[in-house]
Design brief:
By secondary structure, the chain is α+β, with helices and mostly antiparallel strands. It has 2 domains: 224 residues, Ribonuclease H-like superfamily/Ribonuclease H (Nucleotidyltransferase, domain 5, 2-Layer Sandwich); 62 residues, no CATH class. It contains 13 helices and 11 strands. The strands form 4 sheets. A 5-stranded mixed sheet has the order 7-6-5-8-9, sandwiched between helices. Helix 7 crosses helix 8. The protein is globular. One of its GO terms (molecular function) is 3'-5' exonuclease activity. One of its GO terms (biological process) is DNA replication proofreading. It holds the Pfam family RNase_T. InterPro entries: Ribonucl_H, RNaseH-like_sf, RNaseH_sf. Keywords: Exonuclease, Hydrolase, Nuclease.
Length: 336
């Protein structure tokens, strides 16, 4: 087969315009049994209309030829839209299109999503598919690992609600946080994804959409989210309204591992790792470790210094990740 590859340009930014709600002072959430046909195990809640307003939440997933947006291309885009009506989530529309990436699909990528050159040779060029995707109504974009999908779409990952990071922050009792793992760990009913091949764009969107519904409605997650935002904004959890900007701010908080997961002290809580080893790790430099590992080291050293009276508890350590202080106080929001 002689494949013709062309038009590798990636589309320009999308401006997200969403009504911003005050974070504190919202009324309490109200109970419900299911959301838009997606049943949620562990009795769920529907948000108050003041939490997300009339927001449109677009769950996005891409399949690509690799992981580098500068040299790899998009082969499929999928999305599932949730709309919030009267405080309830409802699936409104879906998007699913193959794209010609302008370069061959390596077998390593095909082994994940099972798409080959033959599947996309007659598809529209990726820039046209991205444009069609972006012509949908404005929405808050949601992705499981937003840093990956947003970068390929030339978007700012900081403007996305990342269900991966939110899960890592609010479901830390789970050892893994991939959407397929959480699908089974949480007992999610993924609806349309049940009969689809995993790691195709729309199938993964349905799984992430079910996870999103769980995160937005589960009582335990709700309490943890409100506590986290209350700590950031120095107010009481009962005063917190989980607006779109609040969820995005959770997405942008540094993820801290509570357990050292490899090496000499594998599966040891940071609180039990010897001081000398923590100091050795810190001395290796930031580039020697994953951000989550370095954040764990810094947080544990800070905790011990506070306990010993050497630091104030209100002077937190400098963690690696996005600084959202300006975002949380109203500056820099794409919809402000």
């Amino acid at each position: 087969m002689d494949a013709v590859w062309k038009n590798r340009a990636i589309a320009t930014d999308v401006s997200l315009k969403v009504r911003s709600e005050p974070r504190c002072g919202g009324p309490p959430i109200v109970p419900s049994e299911c959301l838009g046909g997606v049943h949620i195990h562990n009795k769920a809640n529907v948000m108050s209309s003041s939490d997300l307003g009339n927001a449109r939440l677009r769950v996005v997933d891409l399949e690509t030829t690799g992981t580098d947006p500068d040299s790899d291309g998009i082969v499929e885009i999928g999305s599932v839209d949730y709309v919030v009506e009267d405080g309830r989530l409802r699936i409104d529309q879906t998007f699913e299109q193959l794209a010609n990436p302008g370069c061959p699909i390596p077998p390593e990528a095909s082994a994940i999503h099972h798409l080959t050159d033959a599947d996309v040779v007659d598809a529209r060029p990726q820039n046209e598919v991205v444009q069609a995707f972006q012509e949908q109504p404005s929405a808050i974009h949601v992705a499981h690992n937003a840093a990956f999908d947003a970068t390929f779409l030339s978007d700012n990952p900081d403007d996305y609600l990342c269900t991966l990071v939110v899960s890592q922050k609010l479901l830390s009792e789970h050892s893994k946080h991939g959407n397929q793992y959480l699908r089974y760990a949480l007992g999610l009913d993924v609806g349309e994804a049940a009969g689809r091949l995993p790691h195709r764009a729309l199938a993964d969107c349905y799984v992430t959409a079910a996870l999103l519904a769980y995160l937005l409605t589960d009582e335990t997650v709700d309490e943890r989210a409100r506590s986290l935002i209350a700590e950031l904004d120095r107010c009481e959890p009962r005063e917190v309204a989980l607006s779109p900007e609040a969820w995005i701010d959770i997405s942008n908080q540094p993820v801290i591992d509570t357990v050292y997961r490899f090496g000499k002290h594998r599966n040891t809580p940071w609180s039990e790792v010897p001081k000398s080893y923590l100091q050795w790790m810190l001395g290796q430099g930031e580039d020697a470790w994953d951000q989550r590992v370095m954040n764990g080291v810094r947080s544990e050293i800070h905790r011990r210094r506070v306990t010993a009276g050497l630091e104030w508890s209100n002077s937190p350590p400098t963690l690696l990740g996005t600084d959202t202080a300006a975002r949380r106080h109203g500056a820099g929001h794409p919809w402000s």
